Amino acid sequence: MIDTTTQRILLHEERTWFIADPHFGHDAIRRHCDRPFPSVEEMDATIRRNLERVGAEDTLVVLGDLTWNNASDIDVKRLPGKHRLLIRGNHDRQVVVKSRKWARVCDYLEATVLMPDGGKRKLVMSHYPMASWAGARNSIHLHGHTHGSVPPMATEFGGRVDAGVDVWQFRPIRLRDVIAHLDELRTDGFAVPGDY
């Protein structure tokens, strides 16, 4: 069953990773997004190797477009992490979505994050970027879909970040890296395209 409601979950800052838009099996994405791989097989292998950063006890949140319309033989159970969440993207079709290896499948998700200092942060996750989101002043919005074409945005205590592989050197990103990136943008005072 697909969860389409807003559900609140608890995540840990050090053990939560995000990735968006790997497009496993999508040969044309190399050209569309200027991905520096000589073949789709090499692209897929590089992203899979980079996913090995995610520990066995960690949580992996896929912010959409895991594959290209199921063109890949991606096996969800081979993805790393103890818990795997899928925020459905426009190319995530039934074979991927219906896998029983996902802890949750939804279109939109809000989460509370436990911080090392004992505090909490709010996350808002969707495949698509939002100009405004729940609690935008204080919360972090993570998305994919834009392949780096929408710049990050820092708000007073939060912000918006594209978690796509085209932005983060084909690697998953840890929540603490997202927070550090937003802190850096806030120090600079503004975000412009290419500020990743």
Description:
- By secondary structure, the chain is of the alpha/beta class.
- 17% of the residues lie in helices and 24% in strands.
- The strands form two sheets. The protein has a six-stranded mixed beta sheet with strand order 1-6-7-8-10-9. It has a five-stranded mixed beta sheet with strand order 5-4-3-2-11.
- Helix 3 links the parallel strand 4 and strand 5 (104-106).
- The longest helix has 14 residues, at 175-188.
The structural class is: alpha/beta
Mean pLDDT: 86
- From the N-terminal CA to the C-terminal CA, the straight-line distance is 36 Å
- Give unreliable regions as ranges: 191-196
Question: Biggest sheet: strands side by side, in what order?
Answer: 1-6-7-8-10-9
Order of helices and strands: EEHHEEHEEEEEEEH
- Fraction in beta strands: 15-25%
The biggest beta sheet reads: 6 strands, mixed
Shape: globular
Fraction in helix: 10-25%
Continuous helix count: 4
How much is the radius of gyration in Å? Answer: 16 Å
Beta strand count = 11
